[in-house]
Specification:
The complex is a heterodimer of chains A (about 500) and B (about 375). Chain A is mainly alpha-helical and about 500 residues long. Chain A contains 21 helices and no strands. Chain A starts with a helix and ends with a helix. Chain B folds into 2 domains: about 220 residues, P-loop containing nucleotide triphosphate hydrolases (Rossmann fold, 3-Layer(aba) Sandwich); about 60 residues, Alpha-Beta Plaits (2-Layer Sandwich), CATH 3.30.70. The longest helix of chain B is centred in the middle third of the chain and has 14 residues. Classes of the chains: A mainly alpha (about 500), B alpha/beta (about 375). At the A-B interface, helix 1, helix 5 and helix 11 of A face helix 3, helix 4 and helix 6 of B.
């Protein structure tokens, strides 16, 4: 194994020598890992000074972790630049061919390139974080707990690794640096959203959700690495096919994959959709099994995270133990439509069939897009979150001294019979698409992407949209009626 | 039977996995001491000796990009000690052919073998056997010459530091780059860059060299330098394939030339064979000191192309035997002879004629 890894090390070494001799890489690396923490310290210090005059210690406690996250994120953007350039840059400078002509295996070449983007950037991130913490500590600004600091280190490194693995994949699939740079938003945007989400979780200062986020990010990193290795082809780096947009071919391919061999709608349902469901069976089973798990996790999070947080942070009026079932039922009635709830106030959310359907459809498309940029993994996490929320609400209803079982029976089950299967199907499809993408099949990535898109579209048209329509119809009529009846009965 | 051991490397008694027998006996970094005249000559039959000598083999090699055929049914062999030039204009399919031979592109049809190793099945063995020079210099401009060669030496598995240093130093000296070894490649002239690329191609002592447009976009002086280096690399242990669109270069360097256009090989052979194929037998110009109207009986195979009082133009099939006979006959008839010389036929004329004929036949557009 050592012998196999040696060429990886030589490629890494050469790249590092090259990077350290290039001022265009060195300069931003130094600025972002040295001068940026200095300026951030000044900013943090002045904000802390300003806030402490008003005694808002809570805000100070929240501020420092955010600044640490920002200090860790900015140097990682250099990683993106280095990784995006790593393979396509060599191609553009015509130095790739002799490298491809060496007796190295594809994985050795790819890993060498991947690590070359990783080492300098991770070092820069670690240095920037440590330097910033040192500066903050010296200025007597209160530091977060050691556990949270360690978690922030983990988050920053995980984010950097994910960006590098995504960018290296883009680099290997692009023909020019320009096209790679244009595609970088596929990595940068999700990474920015991720940092925003992490910032939200930082508010709670709870390490468990952050730990799961780090795990999810590392999973996406591994998926990107796998994807890169599956589609790293020497021929693609020298051939002409890559990057060539042939819309007519894509449309033909999509239609062929969407329609399959079917000659009528009946055949389409009978053979094509059925075959899809057979292929999806393992993914469906996984998601079905995850249902009780995530429900339990939701209950666990409600007990261990939300309840203590609400008890310490929320004003007495919304404290869980103090909430009365009357307050909650009033709130639920406000949400329900005027005609159904019997309330004289205007409903907060118009629960019409069109609104519910649009909302569910948008969520399904959002899950698809999330799955697309994260190779299915984020789709799985979104599923866990959704079902987990049911668990959290279950506990919340118990805190409000309402019967969750009855509320779920009247308020979720009628439309849930249609909505939950469509949701499981949608998540499983997105997950399956990710798995298909990172499994070698001998097909090009564009072909797999189009086939995936066709699969998703087929299941959407054949099953998910009809189920969502039925669910919306039931929810806007029967569910609301049953819920109202129940709420009136407990008044 | 005890083999004579080379200074470096070793003999393989058994062929490599999946490789042709004999061909795999020669491994990169090993000196082929025997050659065709070596000790095994007496024990191996001639057809086997012949297969040993074939180092590059393209068999109906074809490559399609989308709907475009870049290379179509290309077949040739290059034997040990031989230089073959693929001569053709830009876009003729030369680079694609070379990339297929170096296992960088997969043939759509046909197959290629280097030293008996199939390019599809044993790409790593092919890479070890081939030194490749690309059209562009392909240097890392922020590295110095020594570092650059060291990097590739390591990738080709030269782990022994002493041996690596010795090989790098000797290559740098061989190409006259010793003084510039520690200068950044970005400071090198074009000629120096190409020489360093050649050194890179030779770092693992490959038995096969694939040189893609080695002098393209170079000034005449630098191009001349590189050509001289290529000629110096000619060795009976090595097969070299050059792709070029430069006729002079092809004629100067190659033992055989394959004219390629639109992915097809239109004609192949030594420069003399090509000329003979296109223009027929060689023509000779006989000049007299004074006008001569006499007559002699010429052999049947000799054709008089043109007859003037001061000069004759003859097409002679076997010049070595026929020309002395004609010379002697004319002297005996009292002709005052001045000179006898072959009518020069350039490769350019040959090339253009081949292309014109291919167009007439509809083989190319």
């Amino acid at each position: 194994m050592r012998e196999k890894l040696q060429p990886v090390f030589w490629i890494l070494r050469r790249e590092l020598i090259d990077q350290l001799r290039d001022w265009r890489i060195l300069f931003p690396l130094i600025v972002l890992s040295f001068f940026f923490p200095i300026s951030m310290t000044g900013i943090a210090e002045s904000i802390v000074g300003f806030i402490s005059r008003y005694g808002a210690e809570l805000v100070i406690q929240q501020l420092v972790p955010f600044t640490i996250l920002a200090v860790g994120f900015f140097p990682s953007t250099i990683a993106l630049t280095i990784a995006l350039e790593s393979i396509v840059g060599e191609r553009e400078r015509n130095t790739i061919e002799p490298l491809l002509a060496t007796p190295l295996e594809n994985w050795q070449l790819y890993l060498g390139k991947l690590l070359s983007g990783t080492v300098a950037s991770v070092m820069a991130v670690l240095f920037a974080l440590s330097f910033y913490l040192f500066l903050v500590h010296r200025r007597d600004v209160p530091l977060p707990s050691p556990g949270l600091i360690a978690m922030l280190y983990l988050i920053s490194v995980a984010n950097t690794l994910m960006m590098i693995s995504g960018a290296t994949f883009i680099s290997a699939q692009s023909t020019t640096i320009r096209s790679a740079t244009l595609s970088s938003s596929f990595v940068l945007l999700p990474a920015s959203f991720l940092v925003m989400a992490e910032a939200n979780f930082l508010f709670w200062k709870d390490l468990l959700p952050l730990f799961w986020i780090v795990m999810a990010v590392l999973l996406v990193t591994v998926a990107f690495l796998r994807l890169g290795l599956v589609y790293f082809e020497r021929e693609n780096l020298l051939g002409r096919e890559i990057d060539t947009l042939n819309f007519r071919r894509y449309v033909r391919l999509f239609w062929r994959a969407f329609r399959g061999e079917a000659r009528s709608v009946w055949e389409w349902y009978r053979y094509e959709v059925r075959r899809d469901l057979q292929q999806l069976r393992p993914a469906l089973l996984i998601f079905l099994a995850l249902f009780p798990v995530s429900l339990g996790l939701g209950v666990y999070v409600a007990d261990t995270v939300i309840k203590p947080a609400l008890e310490t942070a929320a004003p007495p009026s919304i404290q869980t133990e103090g909430s009365s079932r009357e307050e909650l039922s009033q709130m639920l009635r406000r949400i329900l439509p005027l005609s159904v709830s019997g309330s004289e106030e205007a409903p907060a959310i118009p629960l019409s069939m069109g609104f519910i359907f649009r909302h569910n459809l948008t969520s399904t498309i959002f899950v698809f897009l999330m799955g697309l940029v994260s190779l299915g993994t984020m789709g799985a996490f979104a599923y866990l979150l959704n079902i987990g929320l049911l668990g959290i609400v279950w506990r919340g209803l118990e805190w409000a001294q309402l019967s969750p079982l009855k509320l779920y029976l009247f308020g979720v089950a009628p439309h849930g019979i249609f909505e939950i299967p469509s949701m499981i199907l949608s998540f499983a499809t997105v997950f399956y698409m990710g798995v298909r993408l990172i499994t070698p099949s001998g097909k090009t990535i564009s072909t797999i992407l189009i086939e995936n898109l066709a699969l998703w579209a087929r299941l959407m048209v054949a099953l998910i949209i009809p189920l969502l329509l039925i669910a919306a119809a039931v929810e806007s009529s029967l569910t609301v009626f049953l819920l109202k009846a129940y709420l009136l009965s407990i008044k | 039977m005890e083999q004579q051991r080379p200074r470096r490397g070793r003999w393989l008694e058994v062929a490599g996995e999946g490789a042709d027998k004999g061909a795999a006996m020669y491994q990169p970094g090993w000196r082929w001491k025997g050659g065709a005249s070596g000790r095994y000559r007496s024990i191996f039959p001639s057809f086997f000796r012949e297969s040993l000598r074939t180092m590059i083999e393209a068999e109906a090699l074809s490559k399609q990009f989308d709907s475009f055929w870049a290379v179509r049914e290309v077949t040739f062999t290059v034997k040990m000690g031989e230089i073959l030039a693929l001569l053709g204009q830009n876009g003729a399919g030369k680079t694609t052919t070379i990339r297929m031979l170096n296992a960088l592109l997969r043939p759509t049809r046909g197959r290629a073998r280097i030293m008996g190793y199939d390019t599809l099945e044993q790409p790593e063995a092919v890479h070890r056997s081939v030194g490749m020079l690309t059209e562009q210099h392909s240097l890392y401009l922020r590295m110095n010459g020594y570092e650059y060669l060291e990097f590739y030496a390591r990738l080709y598995g030269l782990h022994d530091p002493g041996e690596r240093r010795r090989r790098i130093t000797s290559l740098l000296e061989y190409f006259g780059l010793g003084q510039a070894a520690y200068r950044r490649c970005g400071e090198y002239s074009k000629g120096m860059r190409q020489k360093l690329s050649l050194a890179r191609a030779l770092i693992h002592e490959p038995p096969v060299l694939l040189l893609d447009e080695p002098t393209s976009a170079m000034d005449p002086e630098a191009a001349q330098l590189v050509r001289q280096e290529i000629l110096r690399l000619r060795s009976r242990n090595r097969a070299i394939l050059i792709s070029t669109h430069n006729l002079t270069e092809a004629e100067m360097l190659a033992d055989r030339i394959a004219i390629i256009a639109e992915g097809r090989i239109l004609a192949a052979g030594t420069p003399q064979e090509l000329k003979r194929k296109v223009f027929g037998e060689a023509e000779y110009l006989l000049r007299f000191q004074s006008p001569w109207e006499g007559a002699i009986t010429l052999p049947e195979s000799v054709e008089v192309v043109e007859r003037k009082p001061m000069e004759w133009r003859l097409r002679v099939p076997q010049p070595q035997t026929m020309l002395p006979l004609i010379w002697r006959g004319l002297l005996e008839q009292g002709a005052a002879l001045l000179t006898l010389q072959e009518v020069p036929r350039s490769l350019e004329e040959t090339y253009l004629a081949v292309m014109a004929r291919a167009r007439e036949r509809g083989e190319i557009q």
